[in-house]
C-alpha cells in the first residue's frame, strides 16, 4: 500500500479507502478491517446515517483507533420527529458530531464530511461551525460530499479569506458508468489541492457482473470492454474498474465498500494493476462520455491566430 497526502494537509492516507456502509455486525466487519490494516490501509469512512456502522467500528477499533484515519459524516436525518435533527446548520452539526464521537468511542475524528448540500444553510455557517470543531480538537479536517463545484469553490475561497479551516477533501460518485465529476468537480478539486474520495467506483456492483446481466445498451458496451481488458490482463472486472478510477487524476482515491475479506482482497489488488494506455482509451471510448459545454467549445486552438482572422469572437 502506498500513501498520499490528504488534500493540502500533511495527513497521510492510503491509496484505497475502506467504506463501512455495508458493515452489519462486529463478526462480519472485524475480518474486513483486519485484512485492510494488514495490507497497510488506514482510511476508514462511515456516516451517522449508515445504520449501526459507527457502533460496530467503535468496538472493532477499540485499543487501536489512533492507527487509523477515521472519517464520518453528518447532514441526513437523525431523528424524524425533530425538524432540526437534519441539515448542515450549526445545531445539527454539534449534536451529530457528539453522537458520532460517542458511538465510535473516540474523542476526535480525523475527517468530518458534510454529507450533502442542502439549500437552507449558508455555506458560511457550515464552514464556521466546522472551523469551531477543528479549533476545539473534535475534528482535525473537514470535507464535503455530494455538492456542486461552485459551492465548494465558494466555501474554500471564503475559508481562505477568513482564516477558517476549508474543505480538504471531496467525496463524490465516480465510475466508468458515472463520469460527471470530470466536467467541473474534479478540475475544481485539483485546483484547490483537494483529495477526491470516489464512492460507488464499481457502480453499486454493476461493473463486476457478467455482460449478459447489463441493464441497458450503455452498460452492456462498458461491461464488454471491462471484461475484455480483465481477460487480457489476467485481472477481475472489479480490479479493472477500480484501477480505471485512478488513471485520470492523482487526486482520486477509490472508496471500496467491501462486505467480506475476500471481496476486499480482490479490491486491494487493483492498487497494483497498471492499465495500458490502449486499455484506458478503449474503456474511455466505451463510456461515450463527453465533457459538454464549455469544455468542448474551449479547445486549445480556439485562439489560434490562424483561426481568429475573419472570425467573430
Describe this structure in words.
It is a single chain. By secondary structure, the chain is of the alpha/beta class. The chain has a single domain, classed as NADP-dependent oxidoreductase domain (TIM Barrel, Alpha-Beta Barrel). The protein is built from eleven helices and ten strands. The strands form two sheets. It has an eight-stranded parallel beta barrel, surrounded by four helices. The longest helix has 16 residues. The protein starts with a strand and ends in a 5-residue tail after the last helix.
Task: Give me the CATH fold name.
Answer: TIM Barrel
Measured on Cα atoms, how large is the radius of gyration? Answer: 21 Å
Text of the CATH class: Alpha Beta
The number of distinct β-strands equals 10
Structural class: alpha/beta
Short description:
37% of the residues lie in helices and 15% in strands.
Strand and helix layout:
Elements: E1 3-5, E2 12-14, E3 17-19, H1 26-38, E4 43-45, H2 53-60, E5 69-74, H3 90-104, E6 109-114, H4 123-135, E7 139-145, H5 149-162, E8 167-173, H6 185-191, E9 195-199, H7 217-232, H8 237-244, E10 252-256, H9 261-268, H10 277-287, H11 305-308
Keywords: Oxidoreductase
GO molecular function: oxidoreductase activity
Pfam families: Aldo_ket_red
